[in-house]
Amino acid sequence: xxxxxxxxxxxxxxxxxxxxxxxxxxxxxxxxxxxxxxxxxxxxxxxxxxxxxxxxxxxxxxxxxxxxxxxxxxxxxxxxxxxxxxxxxxxxxxxxxxxxxxxxxxxxxxxxxxxxxxxxxxxxxxxxxxxxxxxxxxxxxxxxxxxxxxxxxxxxxxxxxxxxxxxxxxxxxxxxxxxxxxxxxxxxxxxxxxxxxxxxxxxxxxxxxxxxxxxxxxxxxxxxxxxxxxxx
Length: 232
What we know:
- There is one protein chain.
- The chain is an alpha/beta fold.
- The chain folds into two domains: about 150 residues, 3-Layer(aba) Sandwich (Rossmann fold); about 70 residues, Putative phosphatase, domain 2 (DNA polymerase, domain 1, Orthogonal Bundle), CATH 1.10.150.
- Helices cover about 40% and strands about 10% of the residues.
- The chain is built from nine helices and six strands.
- It has a six-stranded parallel β-sheet with strand order 3-2-1-4-5-6, sandwiched between helices.
- The two termini are about 25 Å apart.
- The C terminus is likely disordered.
């Protein structure tokens, strides 16, 4: 018999907040300031990974190298000061969090963002959004960023649940791959900019928070104790 889903692991960037383009622009600017001219089009598909993946794939640098650390620090400064204050939450993001919380789900963030970025992003959803999360797992809790499963496994440990008791909500193929390696199924959102083909490993795909909320009664989350079936 399938276990009842009790915990929801949520990516934040591109899932609850329209931040993926902003992250890409921050990377492009930080790289350019350090002499590396990389196009937005090259960086944008990598958003959802952390700097440990973006730097090697764009300019062949390790995040832990001296130059990699300088670029990463500048990218973060740019994101926090220039982009984050103006980012909108996706329609229905706050309402979805409230609904999931009222349904009794334990909510945990599972993101490749750093902890201060995560708190800032949650404030863009709502001033009280952070309080609805039982745990907030970020880059500091994982040795490797998505699509490695480290952050998902860390979130599972923090909420003390088995993979079969949880579901991931994310917006990229990296979320699906990371969760899948940890044994967690994923509900995917199109709002992060990925196609249905890219998100094909998800058990269900929705336009974004408002779409999931509108169709919640027919979603895998509402099917208590049922096996998860693929829906699009």
